[in-house]
Automatic annotation (TrEMBL):
Organism of derivation: Thermobifida alba (Thermomonospora alba)
Keywords: Pyrimidine biosynthesis, Transferase
Gene3D superfamilies: Aspartate/ornithine carbamoyltransferase (3.40.50.1370)
Family annotation (HAMAP family): Asp_carb_tr
Function text: Catalyzes the condensation of carbamoyl phosphate and aspartate to form carbamoyl aspartate and inorganic phosphate, the committed step in the de novo pyrimidine nucleotide biosynthesis pathway.
Protein name, per record: Aspartate carbamoyltransferase
Taxon lineage: Bacteria, Bacillati, Actinomycetota, Actinomycetes, Streptosporangiales
Family as reported in the entry's similarity comment: Belongs to the aspartate/ornithine carbamoyltransferase superfamily. ATCase family.
Pathway assignment: Pyrimidine metabolism; UMP biosynthesis via de novo pathway; (S)-dihydroorotate from bicarbonate: step 2/3
EC number: 2.1.3.2
Residues the entry annotates as binding carbamoyl phosphate: 54-55, 104, 132, 135, 260-261
């Protein structure tokens, strides 16, 4: 694995290796070990052309916990405003010694283009409406932690599938790992290509909910769409929102997930988002371990026992 651009590029063994490595790194963290020297001397550049809270901070925390040097680049306030291209920006960062580049960009395919231009490892942190592989990996990690397995797990992904890079990355990864995914959305919020995705499709949330082990709610991405896709927030919420009544109809063991950012009161009620069966906060915590695993595996650090690592508490 040289880059992480799409979960569709991962074999089952590679995906399991990332999840297992993340588990091992999470256990090190649970022993109050704050920092590992694993990536000392490596430089990770976070290249963010789109806004982010969770992903950007999580990659920064992951790289720093493994002692990498981190350069944070935000397109806002940079020479991008003077017309500098992605390629020239990337080559500039490479000239400063980047071993790994984490990129978020509004254009689908930007991460794959970047991988053609730079020598270091490229990690896709979200490219347009295409993919968000580390989000799917942290989601799978969270499901496995909570439910104990992924094989045969029935996962409903609900909401704006059309504009969701999280949905596509999850469908591809969960299929590889043996879970059964059903996408639930109004027809206008499904991508044209959905028939070719390895999953089921439904327009009826109330029918799918009681049969699901995991219910992943997605935000309606108003910033990426035209009004004809999404006529009324109230109507959407009535048909596709997860409120207390619907939550009560879920199986007792089922969990609720959301990648964030959430719009409380729209796709998910505050009561459901804050319930003990919601994994929203755990997903954020797990994201750091999963991103540590990805950086470790791509940048070639060596996992050793804590004694050899000279870890810092
Ligand atoms: N889930 C996610 O990608 O959140 P951010 O946009 O805040 O990074």
């Amino acid at each position: 694995m040289r880059h992480l651009l799409s979960t569709g590029d991962l074999t089952r063994d590679e995906a399991v290796l990332i999840l297992d490595t993340a588990r091992e790194l999470a256990q090190v963290g649970e022993r109050s070990v704050k920092k590992l020297p694993t990536l000392r001397g490596r430089t990770v550049v976070n290249l963010f052309y789109e806004d982010s809270t969770r992903t950007r901070i999580s990659f920064e925390a992951a790289a720093k916990r493994m002692s990498a040097d981190v350069i944070n680049f935000s397109a806002r306030g940079s020479s991008v405003s003077k017309g500098e291209s992605l390629k020239d920006t990337a080559l500039t960062l490479q000239a400063m010694g980047a071993d790994g580049v984490v990129i978020r960009h509004s254009a689908s395919g930007a991460a794959r283009r970047l991988a053609e231009w730079v020598d270091g490892a490229v990690v896709n942190a979200g490219d347009g409406t295409h993919e968000h592989p580390t989000q799917a990996l942290l989601d799978a990690f969270t499901m496995r932690e909570r439910m104990g397995h992924l094989e045969g797990l029935r996962v409903a992904i609900v909401g704006d599938i059309r504009h969701s890079r999280v949905a596509r990355s999850n469908v591809l990864l969960l299929h590889t790992l043996g879970a059964e995914v059903t996408l639930v959305a109004p027809p206008t919020l499904l991508p044209v290509s959905v028939g070719a995705w390895p999953c089921q499709v439904s327009y009826d949330l109330d029918e799918v909910l009681p049969k699901s082990d995991v219910v992943m709610m997605l935000r309606v991405q108003a910033e990426r769409m035209n009004a004809s896709f999404f006529p009324s927030a109230r109507e959407y919420s009535r048909r596709y929102g997860l409120d207390a009544d619907r939550f009560a109809r879920m199986a007792d063991h089922a969990i609720v997930m959301h990648p964030g950012p959430m719009v409380r009161g729209m796709e998910i009620s505050a009561e459901v988002a804050d319930s003990a069966r919601s994994t929203v906060v755990e997903q954020v915590t797990n994201g750091v371990s999963v991103r540590m695993a990805v950086l470790y595996l791509l940048l070639g650090g060596a996992i050793q026992g804590p004694a050899q690592q000279g870890e810092t508490r």
